[in-house]
Amino acid sequence: MTTTYSHLSPDERDQLAVLRAKGTSLRAIAVVLRRSPSSLSRELRRNSAPLYKGSYFPRKAQLRADARRSSAAHRPRLKSHSLRAYVQAKLRLRWSPELIAGRIRRDRPALSISHEAIYQWIYADARHLIPFLPKSHRKRMRRGFVRGKHSKSHIPLRVPISKRPRSIEARRCAGHWEVDTAGNHKTHRVLLVVHERKTRLTKLRFLAQRSASQLRHGVVRALRPLPPHLRRSLTYDNGTENCEHLLINKRLGTRSFFCAPFHSWEKGSIENTIGILRLLLPKSLNLDALSSAHLRGIERWINNRPKKCLAFRTPAELFRRLNPCNSKLPVVRFHPPAKRRRTTGGDRPAKE
To answer: How many domains, the chain?
Structure first.
């Protein structure tokens, strides 16, 4: 008789049913099947007919055993009520499951969960939370990749990113920023995004239109209040709105570098940040409906959002250490923007 345990096969269940119908004892059946009598007793107790006590039907017993084995593979996820409450609260703040799994070790050391378990719990037991995921697909999908076509830019004295010092690439010191714009085809108003490479701090400004003069004024307004050691260089793409980069360098004392055409991955930090901003500012949203105060609230929201690359600390926490004078970065809750009657033009954002 074997020392390891295995479930009865369909043939063994058939023989068990036949021999039992003939009145054979369990010990005698165990000798024929080369099984332990306790195994057969357990089989009869677990898989016999629930209504007709003492009756054993091999086909029904096999179905019950298969169903039990299938359900045993699905363990309950997020069994703790406090854990579910924490995950739901952070999801409604538009944190990704990976951020939640990393940050919970800092906020509540007694709790622990993996981002994969959060994803599985949402798609299996809490599908009403799918809209709060970074990519709110009804089914979990693999990420794709699309490459654009080459386009020549016309930027004076353009310095390619290949000549940028390695210390900037390695993020050894703060003060090196990436610049980009985000908008849609519905309005002329666009969003200026300025992102610091080391601390991942983000500054947002409205531009009345996507033009070189508007971008120049927006970048200068965003970075001029900072001390010189926190404004060293700027990295752009090859859009025509960046052609006045030399005037920006003159005002801020910075240097400028440019990615290769359609190589957005060379300034991946700001591209990732814009993707996060799209959670609250989708392309379908009319930017004219947003006020400058609401944009500042979104700026505080993204700067108080932890990042995995920062060991699940927030950009605001790191930036305060470098610039103690700028301590007004409170945690805010996001509220949907109120509709405005004004449909043209734009508000001038207040200076920080």
So the answer is: 3
